[in-house]
Amino acid sequence: MNPTDTPTISNAAQPLARELSQLVHSTMAKTLREAAAADNKQPRLRTPRAQQSAGAAAVGPGVQTLAALHPGGAAGRQEAQALYTRCLQHYRRHVQPQLEGGVQAQDDIGIAAAFFVLANLGACQEVEPDVAALPAVERQLRSLLAQTAAWRQLASTERQSLFEQFALLGVLVNESRVAAQKQGAEARAHVQQAARGYLQQLLGLSPDRLSASAQGLVVADKVH
Fold it and tell me: Quick one: pLDDT at residue 203?
């Protein structure tokens, strides 16, 4: 079937579809509000850092995973690995100490996930990520991640990989947004497209319905 020939639902069914969509987003809005509660008893999602090999440039599991997915053959994957490594190092040296209140012995996946979401949301909206929103967004994502069977089944190395992917992609998207401001409309659109894709993959929600504040992520019933 040609995409241009894809049928739409009938006029009679469209009001039903609109109401169902509103109900789904209302449920998500309620879930996000509850997850943002300041009295969240869910422990922080910390994970041990990957062991670094002495005398060698350490490449973490998250960097390896993303680089392996990069197109362009061995040369393209090597370039991607170098880029991802730089982004992860930037997160550890400059972003992580600020977000976690200093150097910690373990990595905080909830904070990295919140940084990732806010960086992508900022890229979609062409604004700086709202740092004031990070504590509440971290509580939301910590609560939601901990409820999933997939999270509970992750081994330690897989959790470290997830942390690294959130951290380095958050840095990459944020720096790409800043660079695109000087490069023009096409570059900005490319970054926005990537950011929208990341948010859809993680949250299953259109960024057009999302906003962030000190109260956390909020999902609107209707697109603004």
Answer: 85
CA atoms within 13 A on the CB side of 176: 24
What's the farthest any 2 CA atoms get from each other in the chain?
Answer: 68
Residue 20 banded pLDDT, cuts 50, 70, 90: low
Which has the higher per-residue pLDDT, 3 or 169?
169
| pLDDT bracket for residue 32 (50, 70, 90) | confident
CB 121 within 8 A of CB 212: yes
What does residue 124 show for φ and ψ, rounded to 5 degrees?
-65, -35
DSSP 3-state of 15: helix
Residue 103 burial by CB count (10 A; 0-12/13-18/19+): exposed, middle or buried?
Answer: exposed
Cα–Cα–Cα angle for 141, 142, 146, nearest 5°?
Answer: 110
- What is the Cα–Cα distance from 197 to 45, expressed in whole angstroms? 24
Task: Find out whether 137 and 212 touch, Cβ atoms under 8 Å.
Answer: yes
Q: What is the distance between the alpha carbons of residues 161 and 50, in angstroms, rounded to a whole number?
A: 9
